[in-house]
Amino acid sequence: MSAPISDTFAQQLRQMRTDLIAQIRAQRGGQLGRAEAAPDRHDDQSGDRAQLGAERDLAMLLDERETAELNAIDAALQRIASGDYGLCQACGVAIPTARLHANPIALRCVNCQSQQEAAQGGVAHPTL
């Protein structure tokens, strides 16, 4: 991949990272994690422990998803730095630029991603 194209994707990835971090901070109300903030929104005396537990579980799942997305962005930036960005990690073929514009953290070409999802029972991975 040419340097100007790599620079374009690097810029897009850095913006995605900045936006995701800002979104996380806004949702958490600063540096406090959702799981820690959830008890503050409900009085423990209300007897609604099931809802509180469900909110904590959801918060933990969201934190895991956001962490995975940040890791995928960082990994894509590393691939740009190493010169491996835009190559399918399964077959080694160049991932079409249109796919990378749509999903700059893509690890695989469409064909290999489809095969991966079929092998997993149709479950899409966040790093399509």
Total of helices: 5
Which series of helices and strands comes N to C? HHHHH
The general outline is flat
Uncertain stretches: none
**Largest sheet, strands/sense/barrel:** none
Q: What proportion of the residues form beta strands (DSSP E)? A: under 5%
The count of strands amounts to 0
Q: What level of helicity do the residues show?
A: 55-70%
Distance between the termini: 19 Å
Count of domains: 2
Q: What topology emerges from the helices and strands here?
A:
Layout: H1 3-28, H2 34-41, H3 49-82, H4 97-102, H5 110-119
Provide structural commentary.
With 128 residues, the chain is mostly helical. The model has no long low-confidence stretch (mean pLDDT 81). The longest helix is centred in the middle third of the chain and has 34 residues, at 49-82. It has two domains: 1-84; 86-128, no CATH class. Helix 1 packs antiparallel against helix 3 and helix 2 packs antiparallel against helix 3 (49-82). 66% of the residues lie in helices and 0% in strands.
